[in-house]
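Take a specimen:
=====
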Amino acid sequence: NLDLYEVAGIKGMFLANKKIDNQVKTFITYNKGRDWHLLQAPDTDLRGNPIHCLLPYCSLHLHLKVSENPYTSGNIASRDTAPSIIVASGNIGTELSDNDISMFVSSDAGNTWRQIFEEEHSVLYLDQGGVLVSMKHTSLPIRHLWLSFDEGQSWSKYSFTSIPLFVDGVLGEPGEETLIMTVFGHFSHRSEWQLVKVDYKSIFDRRCAEEDYRPWQLHSQGEACIMGAKRIYKKRKSEKKCMQGKYARAMTSEPCVCTEADFDCDYGYERHSNGRCLPAFWYNPSSLSKDCSLGQSYLNSTGYRKVVSNNCTDGVREQYTAKPQQCPGKAPRGLRIVTSDGKLTAEQGHNVTFLVQLEEGDLQRSIIQVDFGDGIAVSYANLSSTEDGIKHVYQNVGIFRVAVQVDNSLGSDNAVLYLHVTCPLEHVHLSLPFVTTKNKEVNATAVLWPSQVGTLTYVWWFGNNTEPLITLEGSITFAFSVEGMNTITVQVSAGSTILQDTKTIAVYERFQSLRLSFSPNLDDYNPDIPEWRRDISRVVKRALVEATGIPSKHILVAVLPGLPTSAELFILPYQDTTGENKKTAEDLEQISEILIHKLNQNVIQFELKPGVRILVHAAHLTAAPLVDLTPSHSGSAMLMLLSVVFVGLAVFVIYKFKRKIPGINVYAQMQNEKDQEMVSPVSPRESMPSVPQNGLMSPEQLVAEKLDTQAIGK
């Protein structure tokens, strides 16, 4: 619809302009849109000449715009006090047009129309529609208007001013006996507003009596039952010239017997060519009982519904009216189990709320069994007690299979949900050797705290590789083909949390390692925290360099976690960037002999604090070319590294259970206790990391620093 106009005084009567095949046509309905018809054009024009206009090829079309300005008239007008009279502008033809506009009037509620003017006019209703006043639409000054006392059948010309007036608007006086109108405008474009008051009371010499009226029945092309009732109005006889006064909307009504015309198609139904209402292609009538519960009832539509405000009775009313019907019993179908927040993850120790949903069937009359997958199951006789959902707390992490089954007398249905229960990941520690041999496989393990956090994804980066390796296991084996310092980074994804750790590993074709031990009094000051181990490692390395004169680039010292205090001394075949001056196995052996000689002479020592001097001893040496891993190489570096791992694990166990094993004096502390008093090395300078002038740490310093975090036994 482009425009819709509700006719005043007649319930259910509308005029509408619709676009059909790109042509705008005017239609009329008397039953609130159930049926629409074109308007029959007048038989003759103003001069009495016949108008040849045959439906549906030609009809009358009206402009349905209503003025929002109370002082001006729109294109169409009707009044509650004159329900049969409609005045509008329009044209005759195949479609609505802005050309050849004329004025038309209907005095029988749109059944027939007459042409009253060939130009647009404003029409005012006076005396409850007993008088129609018409004034021409023009930009020129006027002095005449037209009056009709017979509902627009005839018009008389009257002068309302002696001087032509540019009319700006017309206003009728309020009240039931309105016979006064006010015309306002100006005599010239420069003059002030002028008001002309016109009183038509003098035209009538008496008030209307009962005999001055005749009955008129509202109808639609002869059909008397409109909106389920017959309505009879009183209309003043056209030849009687009397004032109606307070008379308005005098009408009697009686209901009609209901027929098919009083019913429209219900929701989901469409009217077919045979006039019947049948289900649309997208509508399933059985869906009415979808949310229906056994023991209740629902309205089963017949495909029809009575037009709103229709007053018909009896007839086909019972046949066409929707009837209550008992809800059928149904087997459970379309069972779903979801969490209240829609997520498939939950935290350990927190409430999880499950919602059970069913497409068909009645949960309240079914038995519901829920298995939470952790050894606990519940059963409900009806779901009314769990309208807020079924709550459960998981005490362990993992992936749990939550199964629900619904049973009633007609059948059963089941559904499954896989829930990931996790706990927050707090810390990730990457464990791997400090030094490895070129092209030999090395194992790296991601140690987590807490150790059980649920489903995890591990992302590994090696060296400068741009593409990571993704695994579901926390341990991986790899080998490096390039000598030097290499980095390994692991990221652990647990739910929405991602933590990472990075370590540096030294890769050489040949190297040697030597286990160092210390005088027992060092254990009394060992807090077993990363910062303390880094400081002691630097102090021992400096003491070795000063005592032997060996360049620091060949020495790497790493204090191991746990008690008794021990360290690993690595002798590295350092080479410059050009690849020259590379140390051979004999060179490494010579450096080892120098170091062992000095260590055996008890000249390697440092002052832990004033009055406390610590001696460094050699435990045993391992030659580590690691070219041939045969049993004869009992001193290989790989075996040495494995021994370090086992020793570290033993120390870790002792540390963990130090309070349960009497006689063992253990001072290891957790990472969060590192703020306690630290044991200082010989001098303040020695207590600081040895950072080169360019701000970068040497490879051996990186390895020593990365070693420290491996001491965290979480």
User: Anything to note?
Assistant: The helical segments are 317-320, 530-548, 585-600, 637-656, 684-687, 699-709. The longest helix spans residues 637-656. DSSP finds six helices and 46 strands in the chain. The first strand starts at residue 3 and ends at 6.
